[in-house]
Design goal:
The protein is α+β, with helices and mostly antiparallel strands. The chain has 5 helices and 4 strands.
Length: 96
């Protein structure tokens, strides 16, 4: 059918590690064919291994966007998903 966009919502939920690796390979092959992929996912292994650009929502609001490295360093993401104590212990400050 030659789609241009593929929307994936938590497609790795409930999969074991081997199955996730197989799914990642399939997603990469689809992407290599020129298909844009929008993926909603909570597994950071999946998000960071596939993404060129990440948007992070917290309680329905956009709190960060950018490259995986920039998003991983964003104080708002650390606090929303890892807790402020984690951020304080690891000296993360600023917004990216």
């Amino acid at each position: 059918m030659n789609p241009r966009v593929l929307l994936l919502d938590e497609v790795n939920a409930g999969l074991n590690s081997g199955e996730i690796d197989s799914a990642l390979d399939l997603i990469r092959r689809i992407s290599a064919q020129g298909v844009t992929i929008l993926i909603i996912e909570h597994l950071m292994k999946v998000v960071f291994s596939l993404s060129h650009r990440i948007l992070v929502l917290h309680h329905g609001a956009l709190i960060s966007q950018g490259t995986p490295d920039a998003v991983a360093r964003d104080q708002r993401v650390i606090e929303a998903y890892l807790g402020s104590r984690f951020a304080e212990r690891h000296g993360r400050t600023g917004h990216g």
